[in-house]
Amino acid sequence: MVQIRKPVAVKEALELLMAHVPAPRAETAALADSYGRILAEPVVASHDVPPFHRAPYDGFAIRSEDSGGAGEHRRISFRVVGHIGAGQMPARELGEGEAVRIMTGAPLPPNADAVVMLEQAAEDGQGFAIRKPFRAWENVSLRGEDARAGEVLVEQGNLIHPGVVALLATFGYASVRVARKPVVGLMTTGTELLRVHEPLAPGKIRDSNGPMIAAQLARLGIPSRSYGFVRDDLDQAFELVRRALRETDCVITTGGVSVGDYDYLPAIYERLGAKVLFNKVAMRPGSVTTVAVWEGKFLFGLSGNPSACYVGFEIFARPALLRMMGSRKPYLPHTQAVLTEDFTKPNPFTRFVRAVYRHDGSRPTVAPAGFNKSNAVSSIARSNALMVLPGGSRGFRRGAIVDVLLPGTEEGEAEWRIP
Ligand SMILES: Nc1nc2c(c(=O)[nH]1)N[C@H]1C(S)=C(S)[C@@H](COP(=O)(O)OP(=O)(O)OC[C@H]3O[C@@H](n4cnc5c(N)ncnc54)[C@H](O)[C@@H]3O)O[C@H]1N2
Ligand code: MOO
Ligand SMILES: [Mg+2]
């Protein structure tokens, strides 16, 4: 008799999983290699930004007090006594009625407090005249207006995206402490599997899960170490899993986790003495997703069915791996959208439907991405989102507001959509 597994709710399974995540480890990365990594230290302003009062326009630096009373019919003239380009320092303070020609980014003379844009100055041989008064600090980029020395600008645990790279460079971080990336061992199981270059043969299919998971890992910036695939043979599969566990920080397998005669992963966990956190989740697809822990390392037993495998990775492996790197935001980006089709078949389990999310008109919408069974591979390719339908006895009607998860943000639009 097959053992009946008790399903745990997705949230409960996630809590159990996240409670077992090992502490992150840090290493140093050169700034040029830091893009896409997770910060293991906060970015702290080592000086004010800008570090000095500077001109935000090409023009003339003046003392605002000298401009009082200027008007269309009462022009005030200034003598130009110097010239400062970006990177140069002002030679001296300004006297009454004096100005220096100044370029964008150049430091203001010590007692200057306003900048007249070139377009606002009526130039003559000696200098220029203005037609309006300037307030103190008008057209000045103030020291520290962007960031103050000592300020924590980005907390550790955040992703280093191009904006963070700019900030690191601003403060002279030639290198930065980042989370060490876990080494993830990847193997697929199944006697039916063929390599990608092999011709189709009776009863066989090509391994799509291996390359797919490697790509899902790559989307998180995590390289994978492929152990290829093994036939459904307990001893062989056990040896390979054990070797992978010794050589990596975490092992992902696909297939062989259900209750079939050739589903050997449960026996492998037992032989290893691994602690199984859960082996049935109240979700569809991916209900067979199993997570075990061996000597502090995770074993993700993802389903062999491609859609279930994909969803199991995104819902469980993704947040665990990101948290292993100290990420503050390990869960999938979440939003809500209007369902544009009826989805009437009720299901007791939470469904993660591969879906197309759009934000065309006034409201974001979502619709299933076609053939949506757990063995589907085509709908994964068509989807850019996972639509979440809570379990229960009811179906969902067109017009309902549903939760949407967005696994990838790198995908662009097919055309420029702005008039
Ligand atoms: N009696 C029961 N049968 C099944 C149950 C159950 O609860 N009771 N669960 C079903 C569900 S749900 C799923 S999902 C699958 C999970 O199966 P396994 O994880 O054990 O995976 P396999 O049996 O090895 O393969 C399932 C399916 O996926 C194909 N596959 C496997 N590996 C790959 C790969 N690398 N690339 C592409 N496709 C792959 C494989 O050929 C099978 O068709 O079990 C149900 N059964
Ligand atoms: O694990 Mo299965 O995918 O629920 O269909
Ligand atoms: Mg099976």
TrEMBL record:
Cited InterPro entries: MoaB/Mog-like_dom_sf, MoaB/Mog_dom, MoeA-like, MoeA_C_domain_IV, MoeA_C_domain_IV_sf, MoeA_linker/N, MoeA_linker/N_sf
Function statement: Catalyzes the insertion of molybdate into adenylated molybdopterin with the concomitant release of AMP.
Cofactor requirement: Mg(2+)
EC number assigned by the record: 2.10.1.1
Name of protein: Molybdopterin molybdenumtransferase
GO terms under biological process: Mo-molybdopterin cofactor biosynthetic process
Enzyme class: transferase
Record's keyword annotation contains Transferase: yes
PANTHER family: GEPHYRIN, MOLYBDOPTERIN BIOSYNTHESIS PROTEIN
Organism: Thermobacillus composti (strain DSM 18247 / JCM 13945 / KWC4)
GO cellular component annotations of the record: cytosol
Record-linked NCBIfam families: Glp_gephyrin (NF045515), molyb_syn (TIGR00177)
One function term, GO molecular function aspect: molybdopterin molybdotransferase activity
Membership in a protein family: Belongs to the MoeA family.
Keywords, sorted A to Z: Magnesium, Metal-binding, Molybdenum, Molybdenum cofactor biosynthesis, Transferase
Domain MoaB/Mog: 185-323
Catalytic activity: adenylyl-molybdopterin + molybdate = Mo-molybdopterin + AMP + H(+)
Involved pathway(s): Cofactor biosynthesis; molybdopterin biosynthesis
